[in-house]
Structures are given as structure tokens and as C-alpha cells.
Amino acid sequence: MICSPFYDILKKKRIAIVHDALAVPAGSERSALYLSNIFPDAPIYISVYFPDNTYQEFKYKRIHPFPLSKFIKTERQYKAFYPWWFLFISLLDLSQYDLIISSSNFLAKFINPSLTSTHICYLHNPIRYLRKTEVYSSKSAPYGHFGIIAIRLLLPILCMIEIKKTKSINNIITNSKNIDYQIKNIYQKNASIIYPPVDTDSFSVSNSTGDYYLYAERLISHKRVDLVICACNKLKKSLVIAGDGLEREALKQKAGDTIQFLGRVSDIELKRLYSDCKALIFPSDEDFGLFQLKLKHQVVLRLPTGLEECRRQY
Predict the structure, then answer these.
(1) Is pLDDT of 123 > 80?
(2) Which residue, 21, 30, 112, 305, has fewest beta-carbon neighbours within 10 Å?
(3) Alpha helix positions (H), the chain
(4) Phi and psi for 225 in degrees, rounded to 5?
(5) Per-residue model confidence (pLDDT) at position 27
């Protein structure tokens, strides 16, 4: 909640919101939606918009996708156009706005506001492609193996550009002490911590426990769902996987007969899965983990023996 005097001042400002993309229903997209609800008159500038693949509430917002986005139909195509999105974001004319709020995992923070504008960036994490290249497989990285090789060859230059641009941002907000530490360490800048909004009261713990463990995240390499599958295969544990992503078919080929893939599920179904599961298995090095915070009373189980054995194997 924004205090009244501050909010009254902001209401008189011309405000725009810039987000990376609205291509998946993930935590940063939910945060961008919340920002838009606070400032309902602010337009949202993005690279691409897939109305059926992200939160339906965005259909009632003023969305401004970039040129060429109408030709992009899938997440894989979107990633293939990364260089173009960076070009468009740097050329985006935002001079008519007093305040630009960017919601950024990688793209939105590269805007070039005018000298009379203030740029506040809600930085979800430093760019993983540059800081944790090793966690991306060829299926999750743009341009596959070639993209990974190119990023590693250009890494010193790309990191220098990213650091310089991030340091020029007027004010940085972030989602956790974890990312605040990374911002200080990488960019030598101080950030204000504002935790993302989570309606924990809408979740409950069931009186009974189902006979399954739960993984509920996107199916991409840096989430390390492969470790969860490996562990449950070895331990013959029942695992329910809720989520979708570029790695889904490859992961299904690794999964044994105790593992079930549900794909994307509704919020109502996700709440039921959280409530009834034995435990949530969460193996990735996460920036914040917006969905995991919802488990207010639930136990988080890592299956250490199985996971460590799989980690050595991979």
C-alpha cells in the first residue's frame, strides 16, 4: 500500500510501465500486473504480448508491444529475436512521461529516459544469461548451442554494457535480500527491498495429505526440474509437475512412471495441489520464488540424498 500523500503526488505525474514481455504467467509478470493495478492509467510497454499465455487481467490494460511482435507466436521465436528487442527498447521514446517504472529480468531496464524523466527499476534479478550462463541448456537458451557459445565469447563486453546501464538508473527496487546482495556486489548500487505482493491468506493447508510431492514452476533448465525428476525416479516417489516450458518434452522422456505432468493449471487447482502435497520440491537457485512464498505453513522438502546423487550425476 502506498501512503496517501506520496500517492497523491504520483497521481499528478505522467507515468509509464515498461516490462520485458508478457509471454508466460510467471512471478515477474504478476508483479507487473500489480504495478499496473496501482497505476491503472499508466500504459505498459513490452516486447511481445501473448494474451492467451499470460494473466488474463492484462487484456483490460493499455498494452503497447514493440514492432515485429505481431509476427512472433511462440516463446522460442521470441527468444530468437532478443537482439531486436534490445534495439527497440533503447530506441523507445518515453519523453512524454515524468516517471517510468521498469519491471526487469533482462530487457526493460535498458530504456533511455529523457533528462527530465525519472526511471525507477524494479529489478527482479541481474541478467541470468550473463551471470549464470552455465545453468542454461541449448533448449532454453536463444539460438541453442550457438547462442551459449556466442554469449560466452562476448561475455566481458556484454557485462560491461549491462553494468554501465544499470548504474545509470535513478532508483532500483528489488524483491529480496538475496537480489539486493547481488546488486551491491555486481553494480555497486544500493537497492530498496519491496517484497512482491502475495495473498497468503487465500491459501490453506489441507487436513489430509496426498501421496505425492509437488514441483510447480516453469519447465526451463535453470529451474533444475531435471534434478527433481532424477531424484524421484531413483527413490520411486510420486511426483506431480505443474507448469510448462521449453524443456517439457525432453523432461517427459526422462521421467519414470511415478511422475505426472499436468501442464499449466489454474490458480484454484494450484492452491489445491499446494494444500494436499506431501511437500514442495524446490531445487533451483531462485531470486525470490514468488509462488513458493505462498506455502505459508507447508514444509519444503529437498529429498537431499536423491538430489545430491542426481546433482553429481549431472
Answers:
(1) yes
(2) 305
(3) 4-11, 27-38, 75-80, 82-91, 128-131, 144-167, 177-187, 225-235, 248-254, 267-276, 304-313
(4) -65, -20
(5) 85
Q: Does domain 200-313 have CATH number 3.40.50.2000?
A: yes
The DSSP 8-state label assigned to residue 22 in this structure reads: B
Whether 294 contacts 203, CB under 8 Å: yes
Helices 144-167 and 177-187 meet at what angle, rounded to 10? 80
- Determine the Cα angle at 26 with ends 22 and 31, to 5°: 80
* SS3 state of residue 25: coil
Region 4-193: CATH code: 3.40.50
Q: What is the pLDDT of residues 185-218, one digit of tens each?
A: 999 999 999 988 777 777 777 788 889 999 998 8
- The contacts of residue 272 (CB under 8 Å, 6+ apart) are none
Of the candidates 217, 303, 244, the one whose C-alpha atom is nearest the C-alpha of residue 27 is: 217
Phi, psi (degrees; rounded to nearest 5) at 295: -80, 75
Calculate the CA 56 to chain-centre distance: 17
Indicate the domain borders of the chain: 4-193, 200-313
In this chain, the answer to whether the domains covering 4-193 and 200-313 adopt an identical fold is: yes
Q: Quick one: cell of 293? A: 512464498
Q: Is the pLDDT of residue 294 over 60?
A: no
| Rounded distance between C-alpha atoms, residue 147 and residue 128, angstroms | 14
Rounded to 5°, the CA angle 182-185-187 comes to: 95
Neighbours of 245 (CB within 10 A): 19
